[in-house]
Amino acid sequence: GQSLEQPSEVTAVEGAIVQINCTYQTSGFYGLSWYQQHDGGAPTFLSYNALDGLEETGRFSSFLSRSDSYGYLLLQELQMKDSASYFCAVRRGNRKLIWGLGTSLAVNP
Amino acid sequence: DVKVTQSSRYLVKRTGEKVFLECVQDMDHENMFWYRQDPGLGLRLIYFSYDVKMKEKGDIPEGYSVSREKKERFSLILESASTNQTSMYLCASSLGSVGNANYGYTFGSGTRLTVV
To answer: Which pLDDT belongs to residue B28?
Structure first.
């Protein structure tokens, strides 16, 4: 079958660094995406990795290892506003994504 | 600012009613998607469309149909609403992809549908 696994919940404190892991098992792989969703809001696109390595965008970075079928989202200098759900998603072809179930991140003062 | 607009934020319908959820995007995107989101189940794809009048079933199409008569508009239809279709419905759009180039999804704000 096809699946993505990510932790259901992560807790951290303001100013800290947190890593949200995602392992995937899919037939066909073009890239790994990350989305953020605040309570009551719509998912918003954060990052995309097609090749191995680290992509950095401000406080957020995303990593991919295709040989390990593994990626992670790294959030630095955590702020209260980073409390949200984070979804990894695999792009298999031209159009569709396969989604993980999401990781709920709670940032405490 | 690019947008995906869903016609209603909250909707309450009765069992057996035919329900129309509308979605419009202003980005000239080829692909449009309808998802439902339920606690603990993540995002589940109902239908998607990659061109006008073209559609494909997603993972949970039963009880739903879609219409895409114009590129910018993608409608989700619940033929006969049932209580198990109470959910958050999210519309999204994206450009077509070429090779490894990525075009992220842009989501609408969602429609919270309650069927009573």
So the answer is: 87
